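DOMAIN: structural biology
WANTED: fold as tokens
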Amino acid sequence: MFRDLMLEDIFALQEKGPHTFIDVRSPKEFKEATIPGSINIPVFDDEERAEIGTLYKQVGQEVAKERGLAIFAKKLPNFISAFKNIETPMTVFCWRGGMRSKTAATVLDLMGIHTTRLNGGVRSYRQWVVHELEKEDFSPDFIVLNGNTGTGKTEILKRLADNGYPVIDFENIAGHRGSIFGQIGLEPSNQKKFDSLLIHELERFKTESHVFIEGESRRIGKVSLPQYIYDKKESGMQIVIHLPLAERVKIVLADYEPWNNPERFKEAFQLIERRLHTPIAKLIETYLDNGEFGLAVELLLEHYYDPRYRHSGDKNTDLQKVDIEAKNVEDAFKKILQTIERIKTPSLS
């Protein structure tokens, strides 16, 4: 018979070796929020879940259960087969540790596949995440990469991480680049998903003395940083990167590839159009319509993003700050490494 385990029991099991979490909720629920690293083997797909929910509300619990069993019975061979491919110890869960995970664990047990079930489901995990974030307990100082839009901050963070430095990429876990065009080509996280990914990054680097991040506003797309993380970012050491405008245009084009989503870029631009002088706005719109994205980006940087960055930078005049003048991202990265050497601490070795 399968065992119900509390969240802390499963964390202890994970420390002993590989452990697979299986979310048996529908794909839509899984996409909205789950335990990071989980895989999705749903008892019901989105349409089936909606059908059963409607029956439950409009007809009754027993009819809904019967329909659910009928649907699940037809997909049992594929369901069991998916679990047979998992070679690690495993734990199944649903939202509250209710019927779906109980049904999955029972069937697996009958087929000789050992699994445990998370008591309280993903809701218990969400409660743990909220509790951990409320502790406001993260001691490392931040070294913050700042600079105008298009100065390669995200690429430099990746290079730092590849070289073994502690890095938290807020934009990556938010699924958003932090600008009005920031979600184009990406899949933005909701707050629950962002919090779950964030707490694991904070846990991962909690013993470091410094962690590298990118200078962000508190809100990134659809999500917000915890206030204490934002405050720590604001008081951290600032490395401000300066690149030539032409180089920044190249970086923005490479990051966003506007030719792949021209309509979405046009829609996003219309959200900020009124904040620009009318002749400039009309010129940018013409460039976008004509596919002259480089010229459009250049004007957006000069007349929208750069003035906004100067305004925000004026508020932080008392911070420890290092300016990096560079020709390109490669040059900026080398100079940042040199800067790190000058401020080196044991944890940055």
About this structure: The chain has a mean pLDDT of 91. The first helix runs from residue 7 to 16. Residues 136-348 form a domain with the Rossmann fold fold (CATH 3.40.50).
